[in-house]
Amino acid sequence: MLIAILLLGASAAQLALQAEKVARGERDWQLAFQAAEEALMDAEKDIEGTPAEPGRSAMFAPDSALGFVAGCGGDGASLGLCLRGAAGQAPVWQSVDFDDDGAATARSVPYGKFTGATMPSGEGLLPFKRPRYIIELLPFTQEGEDAGQQLGYFYRVTAIGFGARPGSEVVLQSFYRKAPGGAAR
């Protein structure tokens, strides 16, 4: 009888530990998801232009590809600005190393770099590091129109958020079009 009670107690303890691991994993995923959403919003503010970086605003004119480079820019105002890959190649966002935050080698933008936004990170229940994003330039054509009749550009924003532990990452994408009058659509 004592052995049966001991086995029941051990299995109950194991179930409790597994439930705690699942809850911790869910919390980390939620934290990473929220950080990635914040990075998407930071990128939208970057596209719309901010007083913190007035020179970068010119790169997001609705009919301009200024500053966007193949493989993503890694210096100055071109950081994180990517031209669309050639037909048949993998999308640019799949080839960018979002974990690279080296000053000379990074191709993605850390949260707040061009908007001045801040996000605490690195301790407790905070993301272990700031989220990052890239902005890809894509041609915009009206539905039903000739694909050669380009009306300007829109942007594919890819963001990665990190959880409290290094293994927790969430990648989100959004598409953003800056209307000619300045308002987003």
Automatic annotation (TrEMBL):
Residues 2-37 form the Type 4 fimbrial biogenesis protein PilX N-terminal domain. Residues 80-178 form the PilX/PilW C-terminal domain. It comes from the Bacteria. InterPro entries: PilX/PilW_C, PilX_N_dom. Transmembrane segments: none annotated. Pfam families: PilX, PilX_N. This is Pilus assembly protein PilX. It comes from Janthinobacterium fluminis.
